[in-house]
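Minutes, project huddle
Topic: does the predicted pose make sense with iron/sulfur cluster bound?
PN asked that the exact inputs be recorded in the minutes so nobody has to dig through chat later. Recorded below.
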Amino acid sequence: MPLLPAGAAMPQSAPPLTPPAPAIGDGGISLYVHVPFCLSKCPYCDFNTYQGIESQFGDFRTAVINELTAWSRALGRPVVNTVFLGGGTPSYLPDGDVARILDAIAGAYQVRSDAEITAECNPNDLTPAKCAGLRAAGINRISIGVQSLDNGLLALLGRRHDAGEAATAVAICRSVGFNNVNLDLMYGLPQQSLEQWRDTVARTAALAPEHLSLYALTLEAGTPLHRWVEQGRLPEPDPDLAADMYDFARVALRDAGYHHYEISNWSRPGLESEHNLAYWRNLQWLGAGPGAHSSFAGCRFWTVRSPREYARRAQEWAAAAGPWPSLSAEAIRAVPTVDDLEAIDDATTAAETMFLGLRLLDGMDVAAASARAGIDLAARYERELAALTAEGLLAWTADERLRLTERAYLVANQVFTRFLAD
Ligand code: SF4
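Predicted holo structure (tokens), as shared on screen:
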């Protein structure tokens, strides 16, 4: 497999690597790096992100490099298929920090030369210099949190940019050579009309991003937006109107030449998000950073959420990490940065493989998914598959892939629950 000519040496503090531990497998992993900083906290957001902790930038950078390097030593320098810097706001990190993190990854892991390497960005951060720096650092895919092109709704969402700045950010990305740009939009917002949404979708498509992610607002308990709706200061979002918005977007983006490949995601053909495909295919991923989740070796686990505590524990992990003879839940649970772990049993693996795979609208190859999961999914779910196809919610394609029917897109969660054990 071709490997990234990183131009980045192993960090000097890292001990020599030993031959690979076998358990991570030849298929490699995806890496997620959680950046817990935002200039300001949006009122709808319940992610593990903070404003006003910029004094911890340096500690975070050191900690995440320590954690990633320690994991590489433990796992025997695995192959990395994709890297995703998310958050939070990776573009808010000081200049040069993304490069240092990616250099550390390139030095410690076998990063594929064709790896998709994404950074989530806020429009205001994307100055020409910042954008050029991200590209020089090795980022090859930019994901911009646009959310809306209606300035009133952007203000309601507490965003710091306006529609013009979002468009300028896309233009700056183009000017420095980014040819894979995702734009995130939100619909089903309080006070959002169908007309506003139509306008946002049309103007966003005119910006010609390679990829679009459209998310219905979820009112998360504990957020200011949830409270404002509870208090009657804002109207409750109308689910029927949100469904109309989704249907409008499906038609408009199809007509604009986008491939609707996942319930909430559209792309130019061939430019689907490789990183997110790894999640939907229920493959292995390693998350670094405070509150990041990981999934491999039959376990789902997550790191401590507090950035300060995470930095302390990452230092401890870096000092202690050595090559593991094999992977086990006990070894993972003992990693200092790990907060908790749950073992994924066969029933969970089977259900997750089904409902993650069915999110992909071209359908899932049930035989291949069964082989990956080590479970005969067609046999396990024979009764459910027969019922759901009879109800017109699932269908088999000519090439024997199982897919959601179009009328199931808006009730997909009801389909997915049918795969959960009673
Ligand atoms: S910028 Fe993104 S991560 Fe940060 S608070 Fe807003 S929605 Fe949350």
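Observations noted during the meeting:
- Confidence is low (pLDDT under 50) at residues 1-22.
- The pocket of iron/sulfur cluster is lined by residues 38, 41-42, 45, 47, 49, 87-89, 122, 145 (CB under 6 Å).
No decisions taken; revisit at the next huddle.
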